Amino acid sequence: MTTATNRHSDRRISPVFLGIVAVMAVTGWATWTGFAEQPGVAVFLFVTAAWIVSLCLHEYAHARTALHSGDISIGAKGYLTLNPLAYTHALLSIVLPVIFVIMGGIGLPGGAVWIERNRIQGRWKHSLISAAGPLTNVLFAVVCTAPFWLDALDGVPADFRFALAFLALLQVTAALLNFLPVPGLDGYGMIEPWLSYKIRQQVEPLAPFGLLLVIAILWIPAVNGVFFDVIDTLLRGLGIDEISTYCGQNLYRFWTDTDQFCTVGS
């Protein structure tokens, strides 16, 4: 009986996660209705909360897939509770990505949950575990962009539309960066099981620095320009124009001067 109780508690949704969802819901409502005196504050809280929710779901997807692939230790580590404080690298998984959203509007990939790979048999299972996280970002991006490519924006307040566009940009950037075959990122985790033992041994020491390398490269103006050109192309294909994402980020950064164009557009 004790074991069963423990297993149930291992999978019970964390109050911390439910609190973040509540913040997302309330501030989303405030953005939609215009209830907040300062719409930028409501947009900031709504997008940040939604971004943290997506980060939790990203890590949960890794953990859940690992559990069904054979790693039965996942539950005891707290990964199935969606608690952002339970992750092995909470700083990399939650704090750093949020800081980068505030600083530059990039959906930075987070850290990974600790998976006991020796419990899992089969290369396809290992690849799927790595793919599960960024695929969650893809799904989140589809949900955010659906009103745009379904032409279902009639009656949707401009502030909420802008916030949704900016949130979609974060999900698309996170998915794209996570799929890069760079050591330490999920894209490399997808192909790693198919590499020779010799190559994996040579690349393994680089894994802790993979994310830092990506950040450094994105600071190069030419690379940054090409990267966001690709992102803008993808978003336009999904029905989101550059003005919507710009105004979404402008409202999100409420502590800076708000562009009057975005205010008039509301």
Automatic annotation (TrEMBL):
Its cofactor is Zn(2+). It is a multi-pass membrane protein. GO terms for biological process: proteolysis. GO terms for molecular function: metal ion binding; metallopeptidase activity. One of its GO terms (cellular component) is plasma membrane. Keywords: Cell membrane, Hydrolase, Membrane, Metal-binding, Metalloprotease, Protease, Transmembrane, Transmembrane helix, Zinc. The chain crosses the membrane at residues 16-35, 42-61, 90-115, 127-150, 162-185, 206-228. It is found in: Cell membrane. The keyword Hydrolase applies. InterPro entries: Metallopeptidase_M50B (IPR052348), Rip2-like (IPR044537). Belongs to the peptidase M50B family. PANTHER family: ZINC METALLOPROTEASE MJ0611-RELATED, ZINC METALLOPROTEASE YWHC-RELATED. This is Site-2 protease family protein. It comes from Streptomyces flaveus.
